[in-house]
């Protein structure tokens, strides 16, 4: 009996060791230094990163690309997954990736670091320094400048994880998810000057199943912007400011445009932002829509427009004068929103004359302006107010 028991224990130990060894051996790591990258911030390391990517893609089992501490200069880099055999590539970044100091080098590239048609890509840690201040100054001067590059973009990709990433001073948008499904962004930090143009922190377009958690975004445009065609989004525990707030829109530029639905934004603190929670649409004909949105547990600290729906968006009366928005907005709830407004009118619902907002729901709202209850203003909006609502609802 003892011999049988000992044999069984040895068999279990062998099985355990075998599977552990197999698991450890399953992941191959490619260090960018061995591919020729130089951590001096001056030597172009683009080729080394692309070589590491190609090597990982060629494997049919999980692989890790490791970026040790240091600064790595990269030009515009394209990470394609069209021919990737690998179902799980992890980029573990302990260093900083640096864009060229001359903004013209990547200024018309569209994206600095672009991933397309990838699946199962995870990015852990690291800092991306877009060095965008030179381009911002160019734009401020009124000179002829490049449009600017998005720092990190994912297109037509699935099952993406971004955890612990920092993005600094992007030329344009910091992070873009376009045509992506099932993505989780967590503990992301975005930092750019409050005056930096078009530097949205995280922009979502034509995507579904995207979750954004525990992130700190300070930038010159929207902290998070939600474009057409997005659904099933969950945004929670966000610190926003400076910036333009969290925006659904702009929507309704095109006549045939997919809508936005099933969006939850909760546990967000806005500090000194231009807007808090915003929905905006162009004053143009469109069959777009917004429905099934919840804004919950929101704190406003000196926010100019804490709660706003603007369906009259038409900068400089260009391309949309004398038109009304065709976007239909319905089933939008605002629950437990407290704090201070930077303007007297804290709640503004300026909805479409052609398609008035419907199903707007307010509950437990308490917004003040200079220690007095703020005001509300509504046009073409219909809904209900429940519980304590200050300012008094104009629905």
Automatic annotation (TrEMBL):
Coarse class of the protein's main subcellular location: secreted
Protein origin, superkingdom: Eukaryota
Tagged with keyword Signal: yes
A Pfam family matched in the record: Glyco_hydro_28
GO molecular function terms listed in the Swiss-Prot or TrEMBL record: polygalacturonase activity
UniProt KW Signal keyword: yes
SMART domains (UniProt xref): PbH1
Family matches, as SUPFAM superfamilies: Pectin lyase-like (SSF51126)
Subcellular location: Secreted, Cell wall
Signal peptide residue numbers: 1-25
UniProtKB keywords: Cell wall, Cell wall biogenesis/degradation, Glycosidase, Hydrolase, Secreted, Signal
Sequence similarity: Belongs to the glycosyl hydrolase 28 family.
Protein name listed in UniProt: Polygalacturonase
Source organism: Escallonia rubra
């Amino acid at each position: 009996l003892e011999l049988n028991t000992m044999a069984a224990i040895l068999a279990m130990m062998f099985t355990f060791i075998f599977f552990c060894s197999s698991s450890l051996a399953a992941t191959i790591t490619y260090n960018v230094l061995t591919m020729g990258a130089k951590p001096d911030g001056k030597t172009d390391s683009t080729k080394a990163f692309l070589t590491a990517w190609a090597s990982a893609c060629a494997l049919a089992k999980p692989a890790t690309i490791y970026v040790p501490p240091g600064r790595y200069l990269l030009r515009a880099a394209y990470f394609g997954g069209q021919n990737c055999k690998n179902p799980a590539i992890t980029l573990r970044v302990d260093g900083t990736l640096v864009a060229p100091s001359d903004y013209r080098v990547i200024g018309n590239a569209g994206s600095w670091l672009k991933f397309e048609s990838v699946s199962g890509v995870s990015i852990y840690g690291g800092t991306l320094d877009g060095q965008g201040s030179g381009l911002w100054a160019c734009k401020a001067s009124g000179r002829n400048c490049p449009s600017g590059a998005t720092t990190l973009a994912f297109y037509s990709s699935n099952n993406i994880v971004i955890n612990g990433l920092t993005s600094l001073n992007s030329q344009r948008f910091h992070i873009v998810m376009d045509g992506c499904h099932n993505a989780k962004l967590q503990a992301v930090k975005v930092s750019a000057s409050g005056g930096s143009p078009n530097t949205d922190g995280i922009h979502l377009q034509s995507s579904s199943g995207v979750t954004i958690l525990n992130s700190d975004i300070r930038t010159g445009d929207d902290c998070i912007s939600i474009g057409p065609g997005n659904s099933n989004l969950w945004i929670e525990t966000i610190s926003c400011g400076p910036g333009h707030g969290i925006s659904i829109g702009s929507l309704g530029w095109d006549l045939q445009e997919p809508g936005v639905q099933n969006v939850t934004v909760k546990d967000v603190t806005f500090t000194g932002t231009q807007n808090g929670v915003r929905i905006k649409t162009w004053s143009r004909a469109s069959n777009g829509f917004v429905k099934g949105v919840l804004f919950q547990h929101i704190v406003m600290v000196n926010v100019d427009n804490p709660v706003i729906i603007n369906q009259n968006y038409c900068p400089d009366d260009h391309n949309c004068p004398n038109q009304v928005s065709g976007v239909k907005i319905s089933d939008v709830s605002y629950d437990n929103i407290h704090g201070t407004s930077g303007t007297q009118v804290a709640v503004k619902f300026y909805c479409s004359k052609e398609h008035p907002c419907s199903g707007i729901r307010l509950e437990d709202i308490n917004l003040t302006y200079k220690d007095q209850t703020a005001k509300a203003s509504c046009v073409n909006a219909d809904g209900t107010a429940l519980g304590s609502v200050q300012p008094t609802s104009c629905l």
